[in-house]
Write a sequence for this structure.
DNA sequence: TTCCAGTTTCCTGATT
DNA sequence: TAATCAGGAAACTGGA
């Protein structure tokens, strides 16, 4: 099954990135993860957004998308090696990617090539084989089974993101739930909990471009700097484009009862890890 | 099939 | 006035 050749490029205009370091992400609409397909990256990063014009921030955004998409642990990539803008990123060779990101490098390199291809030839399906062929230096892909283009079984969790069906927006299937505009796929493990997601942002400053910050590291007190942006990220992770801070905060408040979070009275956007939250203390790392 | 945990959504009212 | 907080209620999903 050659998915990439059947994938019609459909790029929502809202996915285009036309600003540098957005002060508010509330207007930044993440694409439906349910559209994740082998050409996922080229949809996500619209063809209008040519990687060579990315800011450093957008490079990091792309990296984060790659991590999420391939279920790669953030710790496996030294983000400081990607403190580059789009122009510098595009000038990186296959070897540069391998040096910078190790075994993940080939995946990133391949993804970037797809983006470059699509920005140059919008509407023309990317042929990863062409890239492999054009890579004279033996392309020693360490993930033969993880070639996202080769099959649809790259990763069970990734597969779970592929839509079971492709109902039209107006079809009844999409209206299964009035209050649930997204579909969580079967066999998709519950995965990260919200509080763990928040914790991981706090523990990975490289992945946290000013979204949440520690107020008191030892006490586990933290504050949302860009609440809507965090909600958007959480929504993206859960394939829920309608996530808002209001909804996210409701989920956060449920943690009070379970003592995963504690109330911090009188301070907006401030939360504190509770006794049942694990893994946030420096001594636990 | 049922139950449950963990959200998600919607809502009203209070507070900043 | 808008943003945020608080919490009730119902709905939904995946897993056991």
């Amino acid at each position: 099954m050659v998915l990439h050749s059947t994938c019609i490029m459909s790029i929502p205009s809202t996915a285009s990135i036309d600003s540098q370091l957005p002060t508010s992400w509330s207007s930044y609409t993440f694409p439906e993860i349910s559209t994740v397909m082998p050409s996922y990256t080229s949809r996500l990063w619209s063809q209008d957004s040519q990687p060579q014009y990315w800011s450093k921030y957008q490079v990091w955004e792309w990296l984060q998308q790659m991590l999420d998409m391939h279920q790669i642990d953030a710790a496996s990539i030294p983000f400081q090696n990607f403190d580059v803008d789009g122009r510098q990123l595009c000038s990186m060779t296959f070897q540069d990617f391998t040096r910078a990101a190790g075994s993940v490098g080939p995946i990133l390199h391949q993804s970037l090539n797809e983006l470059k291809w699509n920005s140059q030839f919008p509407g023309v399906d990317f042929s990863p084989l062409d890239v492999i062929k054009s890579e004279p230096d033996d392309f020693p892909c360490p993930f033969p089974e993880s070639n996202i283009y080769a099959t649809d079984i790259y990763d069970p969790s990734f597969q779970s993101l592929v839509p079971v069906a492709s109902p039209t927006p107006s079809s009844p299937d999409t209206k299964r739930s009035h209050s649930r505009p997204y579909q969580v796929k079967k066999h998709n493990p519950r995965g990260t909990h919200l509080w763990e997601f928040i914790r991981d942002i706090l523990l990975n400053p490289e992945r946290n471009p000013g979204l949440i910050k520690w107020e008191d590291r030892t006490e586990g007190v933290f504050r949302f700097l860009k609440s809507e942006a965090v909600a958007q990220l959480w929504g993206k992770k859960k394939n829920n484009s309608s996530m808002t801070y209001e909804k996210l905060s409701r989920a956060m408040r449920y943690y009070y009862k379970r003592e995963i979070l504690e109330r911090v009275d009188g301070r907006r956007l401030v939360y504190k890890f509770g006794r049942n939250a694990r893994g946030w203390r420096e001594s636990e790392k």
About this structure: Residues 1-48, 121-189 of chain A have pLDDT under 50 and may be disordered. Residues 176-180, 183-184, 186-190, 227, 245-246, 249-250, 253-254, 256, 263, 268-269 of chain A lie near DNA strand C (CB under 10 Å from a C1'). Residues 93 and 261 of chain A are 45 Å apart (CA to CA).
